Amino acid sequence: MTPTLEDARRFDAEDPLSGFRDRFVAPDDEGIVAYLDGNSLGRPPKATLARLDSLVRGEWGTGLIRSWSEGWMELPVQVGDRLGAAALGAAPGQVVVADSTSVCLYKVLRAAVALRPGRTEIVTDRHNFPTDNYVVQGVADELGLAVRWIDSDPEGGVTGEELAAALSERTAVVILSHVAYRSAFIADMAAITELGHSCGALVVWDLCHSVGSVPVELDALGVDFAVGCTYKVLNAGPGAPAFVYVRAEHQEAFRQPIWGWMGSDLPFAMEHGYQPAAGVRRALSGTPPITGMVGVDEGVALVAEAGIDRIRAKAVELGEMVIELADEWLVPLGMRVASPRDAELRGGHVTVARADGEELSRRLIDEGVIIDFRPPDGIRIGLSPLTTSFAETWQAMDAMRRIAAEGR
To answer: Coiled-coil segments, which residues (predicted)?
Structure first.
């Protein structure tokens, strides 16, 4: 039976995470019907407002430069440890917060290739997020390597069978996204990591659409390296720093290419020669962005409090409702569900598609349904469990039904 608005409101009343919505800044815009783009930019937590005020008035305004030695220097690893525990299944000392996702991926790819001398190929997905593929192409061009592209299903993602066909003794590194940015397909991290290792390659995962939304067990699955952003479901803020995971067993040999003083063993010794710091701190380069770092810390605290399993459960429930409504309302209007229907294979968003998806997206946004468009025809409905309600999602789908009918 198709869910009604009354059903959606009842789901909200029964939702154990519903109270978290009040802990975020509400949009000062009565024209917003629903914000369904939290998987691109999460809403700001009220705690971040308070934390930034404290930072500016106290740590920065009063502590001034003394604050570096009174806690700031340790934030990249401390916040990384908290993130690892809350959302990544990573023991302490393996996650550090630093730079952008693109820079982090460049560091990790260069380091991983160096750990597999004599191997000449990087394997990745042609339909991966563009920045990942640009970084891969740049590293391959820089080092004279070949890229072996997997042509995955754009409405799905890379399977173990596709990866197995691409692997060989030439493979140095496999780099894939755990959750596909278009379709939300969840790759089989365990099987793919094992496959990569079976041919002697190292495996790198992009967790941008996983972290804070889908449980991840990096340590348990033997993942070598991972990167990801924090401004989506972690709600850390626009341009907030990304993170790097370096498995403990690789850290002594890990040599990333952007040598900076914050990644050195004695940053304030001002020595002429570079010596990397012990442990994951060697993944750092320049001065940590403290104002962004506190946003990550507050976002991680909310995820830890809510619990990643409860977050995942709500994301599944929201996704199931979206697909039910899409089947009832949108499919008869020529739209299709361009995400996996099996909840175990679907991350925290649902994509629906039609040839005029770009125009429909513009009209939806104009009418206060904030989604995003992904070429060639996908309308991506982001379901951020701490900030997205069932009722606003239902109302957004109702608006989409009307706009799609008018467009047709």
So the answer is: none
- Domain end among 286, 305, 324: 305
pLDDT tens digits, one per residue of 145-187: 999 999 999 999 999 999 999 999 999 999 999 999 999 999 9
> Residue 279: pLDDT above 90?
yes
**H or E element at residue 76:** helix 75-83
For the chain, state the CA radius of gyration: 22
- Provide the terminal-to-terminal Cα distance of the chain, rounded to the nearest Å: 25
Residue 231 annotated among the catalytic residues of the structure: yes
Residue 125, domain member (yes or no): yes
How many structural domains does the chain have? 2
Each residue's pLDDT tens digit, 217-233? 999 999 999 999 999 99
Task: Confirm whether 341 is a catalytic residue.
Answer: no
Burial profile 388-403: b = 16 or more Cβ within 10 angstroms, e = fewer? bbbbbbbbbbbbbbeb
Q: Catalytic residue at 380?
A: yes
CA 171 to chain centre: 25
Of 43, 82, 182, 232, catalytic = 232
Same structural domain, 401 and 360: yes
- Ranking 14-18, 104-108, 269-273, 375-379 by mean pLDDT, the lowest is 269-273
> Beta strand 243-246 with 225-228: parallel, antiparallel or unpaired?
antiparallel
Structural domain harbouring 219: 71-305
- Residue 397: CATH number of its domain: 3.90.1150.10
Question: What does the pLDDT read at residue 408?
Answer: 65
pLDDT at 83 over 70: yes
**Residue 27: what pLDDT?**
85
Exactly one of 129, 148, 363, 398 is catalytic; name it.
Answer: 129
Distances (CA, A) of 191 to 38, 63, 187, 221, 250: 29, 49, 9, 9, 21
The active-site residue out of 15, 37, 125, 206 is 206
245 catalytic? Reply is no
Asked whether 212 and 222 are in contact (CB, 8 A), the reply is no
Active site residue 20: no
Residue 110 neighbours by CB under 8 Å, 6+ apart:
139, 143, 256, 257
Q: Are residues 110 and 175 in the same domain?
A: yes
Q: Does residue 269 sit in the same domain as residue 168?
A: yes
Spatial separation of the C-alpha atoms in residues 277 and 265, rounded to whole Å: 4
Q: Is residue 59 part of a domain?
A: no
* H helical segments located in 174-266: 189-198
Q: Which of 282, 305, 328 is the last residue of a domain?
A: 305
